[in-house]
Structure prediction request, 333 residues.
Amino acid sequence: MNFTQFPRRKYIQSSTPIEPMPGLSLALGGNVNLFIKRDDLLPGAGGGNKTRKLEFCMADAMEKGADTIVTCGAIQSNHCRLTLSWAVKEGLDCHLILEERVKGAYNPDASGNNFLYQLMGVKSIEVVPGGTDMMAAMEKKAAELSGEGKNPYMIPVGASNAIGALGYASCAMETMVQLNDMSLKIDHLVLPSGSAGTHAGMVVGMTGMDTFIPVTGMNVSRQKQAQEKIVYDLALETAAKLGITKEIPRDAVVCFDQYVGPGYSIPTDAMVEAVKLFAQTEAILLDPVYSGKAAAGLIDLIQKDHFAQGANVLFLHTGGSPALFAYMGTFRK
Ligand SMILES: *Cc1c(COP(=O)(O)O)cnc(C)c1O
Prediction:
């Protein structure tokens, strides 16, 4: 796996920490040793996983001479916040198309990521109804900007194309260097699975390096079959881009959909419990939409003895804690 073959902006100076979680492990019965990789601490305003993908996407944009970035996401999108953050740093304009997946949920005065869009000087926000073809909406915006003499570059939702997923194949390599240095044998890796770039990149990296560490994705929106197909297709595309000749087995992609609840971004009791438990045992802030639901899944699997006694389980913290401030009512209930 050679990442120097691609344009890349180096936003990340050092590896994110891998920390033990003894308090949480004990609170869950002590049968499993939990560890966490702190991608919530990645650079970029507010932190989180999209910075790894944006190292490659922003570099591609700049190589193509872009002066403007157009991207899209949900109304409280960490991806939009981080794309805007790196656009600010690079001196590029940034326009956002936000999908109101829950009708009536958009509030221009909302806290969390929404507040940060405005604080960082977003050029425009267009809110479109749930189910809108987001690629088409971005193309329309880009055409408009081109008409004004701009040179726009579109980054898809979550930066989850083969370019962005390189960031997580690279994270797999970073993780293995750390684990080898620590002489820490990890038996399972658990992560949230949303727009799929994180999950797909990790599978490509872990498989490409023959690490034999199974990767388990916790869905945040889709059902198992649909999500596994999206992750697998993107993994194949990413592996091809990297020049990995080995076949990625279909069963390297495993998703659980039991922890989504009523739908994307809609709180569940198990999510609230998980966020509180991480906060109160490890002082680690999860988020309500991704890492909170993924942690709820992790906790449930531990309670069901899904992992062998004494297993070392690594949880990838993908960030998102700024969104907590848009959900305070959910946690105070
Ligand atoms: C985007 C995001 C994810 C999901 O990553 P994907 O690559 O979209 O699957 C998980 N956690 C947080 C906090 C995110 O913002």
Notes: Strands lie at 18-20, 33-38, 68-74, 93-100, 124-129, 152-155, 188-193, 215-219, 254-256, 312-317. The two ends are 48 Å apart (CA to CA). DSSP finds eleven helices and ten strands in the chain. The chain has two domains: 18-48+161-331, 50-159.
